[in-house]
Design brief:
alpha+beta; 2 domains; 3-stranded antiparallel beta sheet; 8 helices; glycerol-3-phosphate O-acyltransferase activity; GPAT/DHAPAT; transferase
Length: 242
């Protein structure tokens, strides 16, 4: 979210010496307020990329993620008047969301909604915390990028294939992509390829078929349409930093 503020020059004020759109360095000074509704929405969207049963994709998980940033001192709570205009990037046309019918994010309680609308957060130490958050984003970028590249690879692989051959072709594509870009080699390791495929299996993008010759992997029915694979790719890539 800070990257979007920096790159778009939004209503919040961010000043930095040497912003090139992708990398932020030097002494950054921020006056950025982030609304709770958007922070929890982003956390909830990212939770859909976790394997089933690993962590709950629910309102409580999203709120705990934001509370963790408060407890460790990265964010501080700012109470704002009711008529204060809250920063809301989610209403932009290019914002992508992923929700499920059993999602508990949307509360029926008017009190919960009202309280969320009246709360926002600021970075606690502007000279240091933005760089720390960008560092955390870079740590997440490796597996997210591997997911993006693997989703793209599905356009080029004729499935179903035996599991070992499928994995080999995926890793080969990841290595070719990294070599072409001459960077991001952490996203093309055997472990990265295995994790990306496992995540896409858990999400239902890749299907497992047990046949006499062993386990075969193929593209699930919903994602056999190129349009749906592209939507998934855009959904994941919007969280990539750098």
């Amino acid at each position: 979210m800070l990257c979007e503020v920096v790159s778009s020059g939004g209503s919040s004020r961010v000043r930095n010496d040497g912003v090139d759109g992708e990398q932020v360095s030097g002494d950054m000074k921020c006056d950025v307020q982030l609304c709770e509704s958007e922070l929890t929405e982003r956390a909830l969207q990212l939770s859909h990329l976790l394997p089933p049963g690993f962590l709950p994709s629910s309102q409580s998980f999203a709120l705990d993620a934001v509370d963790s940033l408060v407890r460790c001192g990265i964010l501080i709570i700012v109470e704002i008047p009711r008529d204060f205009p809250i920063c809301d990037f989610l209403k932009r046309d290019n914002a992508l969301s992923w929700t499920t019918s059993d999602d508990m994010y949307h509360s029926d309680s008017d009190c919960d909604v009202e309280e969320m609308e009246l709360r926002s957060y600021k970075i606690s130490h502007p000279s240091q915390c933005p760089e720390m958050l960008f560092f955390l984003c870079r740590m997440l970028a490796g597996p997210l990028r591997a997911l993006c590249w693997t989703t793209t690879a599905l356009d080029l692989i004729h499935t179903p294939l035996p599991e070992a051959e499928f994995m080999a072709q995926i890793q080969s594509y990841l290595c070719d992509t990294a070599n072409t870009k001459k960077q991001h080699y952490e996203s093309c390791s055997q472990e990265a390829a295995h994790t990306a495929v496992r995540s896409l299996i858990d999400l239902g993008v890749i299907s497992e078929q047990r046949q006499r010759g062993g386990v075969f992997l193929g593209v699930g029915p919903l994602f056999q349409l190129s349009e749906n694979r592209q939507k998934l790719h855009r959904f994941i890539s919007q969280y990539l930093y750098n």
